[in-house]
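Weekly sync notes, structure subgroup
Attendees: PM, AL, DS (notes)

Item 1: joint prediction request from the bench team. They want all two components modeled as one assembly rather than separately. Inputs as received:
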Amino acid sequence: MVRWARLSHFGPSRASRLNDPDFIDLEQCRRGDPRVLASLHRVFGDRVFRICLGVLGQHADAEDAAQEVLLRILEGAGSFAGRSRFSTWVFRLTVNHCLNRRKQRRLGLTKLPEEDSDEPISSARSPLQEAAAAEERVELHAALARLRPRHRVALVLRELEGLSYREMAEVLQVPVGTVMSRLARARQELLRRLPGLLAERTETVGDRHAL
Amino acid sequence: MPFSCQCPEWLVRLSAYHDDELTAPVRDAVSTHLAECAQCREELERLAGVSGRFASLRSARPTVPLRATLAAVSPTPRRPAAGWGVRLTALAVGALLWLAGGGLWSFVGESGAGRRQQVEGELRRVALAPWHPAVGASGSHGLLPELQLVGLLETRTNR
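Output from the run, pasted for the record:
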């Protein structure tokens, strides 16, 4: 059974894993140790939330989903076999959870939470800028929601989390070539669906070649 | 490697070029093509525009503090499971206590002294309660049932 998992694959490895913030003790994870909760939250909290937001499109829904995912990580740490990086396992779990949640929502098995009006507002921007940014976010979510789930997931993993093609291939369990073509198709679809970008677009060679 | 925007896969390559995920020879070929083709440069700019749209989502944070909620609903921390050494020791201590308890019980409950105390108690009860319904209802040996019982117990104790 795998005992240790490295939370991040960046940075130098250290001899002692006990106090290394890059490692978590899976045994402690299974026992729900508060220190492990803190590490998991520090490394994955925001990232898991962003993936959920990108795939699900609603702030409140994404918060619920992110909490569920983090709990699943705690509960399912025992099933982590160490064949991939721990982060890959977490992202795969997140993506699958979000896709299942969407499916259940479509089937009416789960209820959509109340839409958020309390999305965090950046104090660095003026109200006008904030309103414009909020409008852009709404447009982007609407456009993403109309993409095929696999295209949406590919865009979210790349554009929000900055995963490399190889990492995406591991998370999605597909060849790197498939990741390349999915991303290209997703971007073309999004270009067609985002009003601002569509207006900028003139007829290009790309339009003559349907993907 | 020659690169042409007439190739049906060109958008895939352009997208991977935008992500800097092409191998060096393919990337060089795309760069050479981009230097000559204005339409492809425009397309590349649009891809950058798509990526730029995601900037507002990259800073998204949960409003509810996930950590606090997580700590509240996560499984209660359990004590680490005891090793085999501890388990075996506990088992041995338990067995010893059980044996000791059994011996004490047989000493108090089954010893002659204990039995004698029971018999004496029974005799005292009969002597102090002449009104007892059993008194007078003599048995086959002319003894009260309680005394018959005492006799029987005495016999067994002395065996």
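Discussion: The interface with chain A takes residues 5-6, 8, 10-12, 14-16, 19, 21, 39-40, 42-43, 46-47, 49-51, 53-54, 56-64, 66-67, 69-71, 73-78, 80 of chain B (CB under 8 Å).
Action: AL to compare against the crosslinking data before next sync.
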